[in-house]
Design a protein that fits this description.
The complex is a heterodimer of chains A (499) and B (414). Chain A folds into 2 domains: 25-104; 167-447, no CATH class. Helices cover 69% and strands 0% of the residues of chain A. Chain A has 19 helices and no strands. Chain A has helices at residues 3-15, 24-66, 80-91, 106-139, 156-165, 177-194, 212-233, 237-268, 273-278, 293-309, 321-324, 334-359, 369-376, 380-390, 392-411, 419-447, 453-482, 484-488, 491-494. In chain A, helix 7 (212-233) runs antiparallel to helix 8. Chain B folds into 2 domains: 1-32, no CATH class; 74-413, Cytochrome-c3 Hydrogenase, chain B (Orthogonal Bundle), CATH 1.10.645. Chain B has helices at 2-7, 21-26, 74-78, 83-91, 98-113, 119-147, 152-172, 194-217, 220-226, 234-239, 245-249, 256-259, 302-326, 378-383, 386-389, 397-405, 409-413, and strands at 34-38, 50-56, 59-66, 181-182, 185-186, 345-353, 356-364, 372-376, 393-394. In chain B, the strands form 3 sheets. Chain B has a 4-stranded antiparallel β-sheet. In chain B, strands 6-7-8 form a 3-stranded antiparallel β-sheet. A two-stranded antiparallel sheet of chain B has the order 4-5. In chain B, helix 6 (119-147) packs antiparallel against helix 7 (152-172) and helix 13 (302-326) packs parallel to helix 16 (397-405). The longest helix of chain B is centred in the first third of the chain and has 29 residues, at 119-147. Classes of the chains: A mainly alpha (499), B alpha+beta (414). The A-B interface holds A 1-3, 5-7, 9-10, 13-14, 136, 139-142, 237-238, 241, 244-245, 313-314, 316-317, 320-325, 412-421, 488-489, 491-492 and B 34, 36, 42-44, 57-58, 145-152, 155-156, 159, 162-163, 166-167, 169-170, 188, 191-194, 197, 200, 204, 215-216, 219, 221-222, 224-225, 394-399.
Chain lengths: 499, 414
């Protein structure tokens, strides 16, 4: 009983901090390979974006501009001559130019763009769910999904989706059948529609609306109705609570959110998201968030309200697990539940996209624009580097993903706020704060000259703060990774399958 | 209108009586009370507790706990088996503190029969009981974070508890229902290397407690949710028979290990933490960062109950260290006859469990099987105050209050 027993029971915990087993080497190789693969993939993507952006979309736009008045950028009217003559030439596919013949119909171009968008949203949400599980697991010193698909459970979300699709189609007795079935799609459709006006790049927008911001906000607002409908139609008291909470929460967060968004609008002078983005292209010091102190506060204000609008912790009251079982989702299962889940992650991307466009330099690289021009005129390698460092959609997605990560991170760190505290926070604290910020920003715009010493000093200080915050994130991540054995113990690192 | 009146609960005050015709015509201002079942399959009722809530919107007017879903006739089993055979049943009372249950029942029987327990056995018992207190408080801490919507501390607490489970497994082979402490001592001696592993674990755990304070205890949202919520006055706590951390959080310095020492607790150095008002500094063992009660906390609220457990973990670590120092070679169990005859007479013994005072009444009639075994479960008494505290609170406060009382249904229903 004595020695051998002892070692088997708790000896592993003592040894774990020490040597790595030799069987870890293949895992390290796989990891290295995956990193290389991801880098190559991103590079290829960047090159593709750069190519399409630089040669196709921008040029076609330019051509269109010389002709008639063209208000749309990606979709919308282009003449037959432009499509059939110009595109194949630019793409150097003259022998198969007949392939581009259908592109003259805007319906076809829209169909292609929408398909791309839906594909992107599906893949993004699927991987956002997988990623959230991995992040949560690593925060909690676990490993998360490790089995499905082989490498770190990359196919977990796919498998879950298939499982959800094959589950029994259940409508609770006494539920309002029509509304109950409708609610998930009422949640998902508006969020997807928001992508119509959300620009991924200067020319990467489906419809370049002049009221794009208003449109996106309206779509986010409609999503709330779906939650209320779901809560009501489920015929479950917990669901009803969830729906009612969402209703009252929406009343609270919408006004500070609107006030915070007025700040970038005032600075840009337009509601057109593409135009607002274009004003921030000269490098990261031009980002709205660094423009003046009030804009920086407005960004934080908007992000807090955005958390509430996505029903994310600490404002996840409509589905508060420990209080309302699952809130408005209590009675949902199978595919309909999955659609709600999809809607949640998609709206996370949309609010992050809004924050990126309005505050964080939209789709522009934080690097100085001068570098971009120098690289773009260089050789093959320089052009490839330009593709990676200055590709619009890639930067936009990267910034959005970073903000989505912050939402995930907060969710697994903070406790939940109580409903009266949510209302108090938004109505009595953040709403007055929003008014102060708006007033301050107004005064700033009128009183502080744009190139004056005050503006430059404020801009420099805010930029420095931003760089310090970003560096601190990276620093903490690197240090914590290096000291993970001491920080979390050996349990999660060594003793689970697949580690 | 007729529809609304029909639905009104019998015996309730007539909501419509005070309203004038104009208000009645609009119908908008009327609210209806709703009866909601929380549990027994609710994620935050800690097992199979069912709480019937009478709610008016988000406000809970009345919360009535309904129990009995986990009743397993533990006391009746006690009347049909010998005390040795009853030990595994005590494991299943408060299954998060099985060592403490074993210990209390063993001491009760030993006092009835008059058995002298060897010194080493007593020291091992205290060692195990205090380790289990840490394990139990860890679960309580983590689960309370979960009740508040903070998922992560739960996993951290279980990560630490896992190592205590490893230690227990090394000592007795079981990870939840140990039956390790038994009448006359402990079933087997500690394995080689246990002391070192235990010390190493304590070194690891102590800084972690400080980490939990920073992550959860001092989190502003957490303080807002738990501070000033579910306040139990000292008088109420005594009147409802509350014991353990729930009583001490209300400011009553009552701990059986200190007030009515058993198993030689009087020879150990430890303090009894109580609930303190904001700015208070609870006593902690030397070498530990001094905690301070934050703003917004009232004596006897949910946060105090939670924090008393956190401080108790520090003191349990201190106690385990002392027990390890006191560990001398020797017998681990008294010599006992195969069939232990209980004398005619009765004994009522209470021990300080993680959740409060666990009491065993054992009546012997000269045969090996007691004629009556009665269990006083601390969770049962502590739970009784729920309906008094959860009155006119918010729906979200109900899990906060029930979680802070920290019940284990195995002990409530027995």
């Amino acid at each position: 009983m004595a020695e051998s027993h002892t070692r088997s029971a708790y000896g592993t915990a003592r040894q774990a901090g020490g040597g790595r087993r030799s069987s870890r080497r293949p895992a390290a190789l796989i990891f290295f390979g995956a990193v290389v693969a991801v880098v190559l993939f991103v590079w290829a993507l960047a090159a593709a974006f750069e190519y399409v952006d630089g040669l196709v979309v921008a040029d076609s736009h330019r051509v269109a501009e010389t002709g008639e008045i063209v208000r749309t950028r990606f979709g919308g009217p282009l003449t037959t001559a432009e499509i059939v003559d110009y595109l194949p030439e630019r793409l150097r596919f003259r022998p198969v130019s007949w392939l581009f013949w259908p592109l003259q119909f805007s319906l076809v171009r829209d169909a292609i763009a929408v398909t791309g968008l839906v594909g992107f949203v599906s893949v993004f949400t699927m991987y956002a769910i997988w990623w959230e599980r991995k992040v949560a697991a690593h925060i909690q010193s676990r490993l998360g999904p490790m089995r499905v698909g082989g490498w770190h459970g990359w196919a977990q979300s796919l498998a879950d989706k298939i499982k959800l699709l094959t589950k029994e189609d259940l409508v609770p007795a006494g539920a309002d059948r029509i509304l109950y079935r409708l609610a998930p799609y009422m949640a998902f459709t508006p969020v997807l529609l928001a992508f119509v006006a959300l620009p991924f790049g200067t020319y990467w927008v489906l419809r370049n609306l002049d009221v794009a911001l208003l449109f996106v906000l309206a779509m986010l607002g409609i999503e709330v109705i779906a939650v209320i409908v779901a809560g009501w139609a489920s015929n479950n008291k917990w669901s009803l609570y969830g729906g009612m909470r969402e209703a009252s929460q929406m009343v609270a967060y919408e006004s500070p959110m609107g006030l915070a968004l007025l700040v970038p609008i005032m600075l840009a002078g337009t509601l057109n998201l593409a135009a607002i983005g274009d004003q921030q292209q000269a490098g990261f010091h031009m980002w709205v968030v660094f423009r003046n102190p009030f804009a920086a506060v407005a960004f934080v204000l908007y992000f807090v309200a955005a958390l509430a609008s996505c029903k994310r912790a600490p404002f996840d009251l409509p589905e508060a697990e420990s209080e309302l079982v699952a809130g408005f989702m209590t009675e949902y299962s199978g595919f309909r539940w999955g659609v709600f889940f999809f809607a949640e992650y998609t709206s996370m991307f949309v609010v992050s996209g809004l924050a990126t466009t309005l505050f964080l330099g939209a789709w522009y690289s934080p690097l100085p624009a001068g570098w971009g021009e120098a690289l773009a005129g260089g050789g093959v390698v320089a052009r490839a580097a330009h593709g990676l460092l200055f590709s619009g959609p890639l930067w936009f997605i990267a910034k959005c993903v970073a903000l989505v990560y912050v939402q995930i991170w907060l969710r697994w760190t903070l406790p939940r706020v109580r409903i009266d505290q949510v209302l108090y926070l938004f109505v009595q604290v953040l709403l007055p704060l929003g008014m102060v910020v708006l007033l301050g920003n107004t005064l700033w715009v009128f009183l502080v000259p744009e190139d004056g010493i005050v503006a430059v000093v404020a801009n420099t200080l805010l930029c420095t703060a931003g760089v310090i915050v970003a560096a601190a994130f990276l620093g903490v991540a690197v240090v914590a990774r290096a000291r993970r054995y001491r920080l979390v113990g050996s349990l999660a690192v060594d003793h689970l399958p697949g580690a | 209108m007729a529809k609304l009146t029909d639905k009104m609960v019998e015996g309730q005050p007539d909501l419509l009586a005070d309203l004038d015709a104009e208000t009645l015509a609009t119908d908008d201002l009327l609210t209806e009370e709703m009866l909601v079942n929380m549990g027994p399959q609710h994620p935050s009722t800690h097992g199979v507790l069912r709480i019937l809530l009478r709610t008016d919107g988000e406000v809970v007017r009345e919360a009535t706990p309904h129990i009995g879903y986990l009743h397993r006739c533990a006391e009746k089993i006690g009347e049909n088996v010998a005390p040795f055979q009853f030990i595994p049943t005590t494991d299943r009372l408060d299954y998060l503190a099985a060592m403490n249950n074993n210990q209390t029942f063993s001491v009760a029987v030993e006092q009835l029969v008059g058995i002298e327990v060897p010194e080493r056995a007593v020291t091992i018992r205290i060692l195990m009981a205090e380790l289990n207190r840490i394990a139990s408080h860890l679960v309580s801490l983590g689960a309370y974070g979960l009740d508040m919507g903070a998922f992560t501390p739960f996993l951290y607490a279980f990560r630490e508890r896992e190592r205590i489970m490893d230690l227990f497994e090394a000592a007795c082979g079981a990870r939840l229902t140990y039956s390790y402490i038994t009448i006359g001592g402990v079933t087997m001696d500690l394995p080689d290397g246990f002391t070192d592993a235990c010390r190493e674990f304590l070194e690891y755990l102590e800084p972690k407690i400080h980490e939990y304070n920073q992550l959860l205890s001092y989190n502003q949202i957490f303080i807002k949710r738990a501070g000033g919520v579910g306040v139990i006055s000292a008088a109420d706590a005594i009147a409802w028979g509350l014991t353990g951390p729930c009583l001490r959080a209300s400011g009553v310095r009552w701990d059986l290990r200190r007030c009515m020492p058993y198993e030689g607790y009087e020879q150990y150095d430890f303090e009894v933490p109580i609930g303190l008002p904001q700015g208070g500094e609870p006593p902690v063992p030397p070498g530990v960062p001094q905690p301070r009660v934050p703003r917004g906390v009232v004596v006897g609220d949910c946060w105090s109950r939670y924090f008393v457990r956190v401080i108790e973990m520090y003191w349990s670590v201190h106690l385990v260290r002392q027990a390890l120092d006191r560990l001398r070679p020797g017998e681990h169990k008294a010599k006992l006859p195969r069939s232990l005859k209980l004398p005619v007479g009765e004994i009522y013994f209470e021990g300080e469990n993680p959740r409060g005072q666990l009491g065993f009444l054992v009546i012997g009639d000269g045969s090996p099987v007691p004629s009556r075994v009665k269990v006083r479960g601390p969770s049962f008494n502590n739970l009784s105050i729920t309906s008094h505290v959860c009155r006119d609170c918010l729906l979200a406060d109900v899990p906060a209050i029930v979680g802070s009382i920290d019940i284990v249904m195995g002990e409530v229903d027995r």
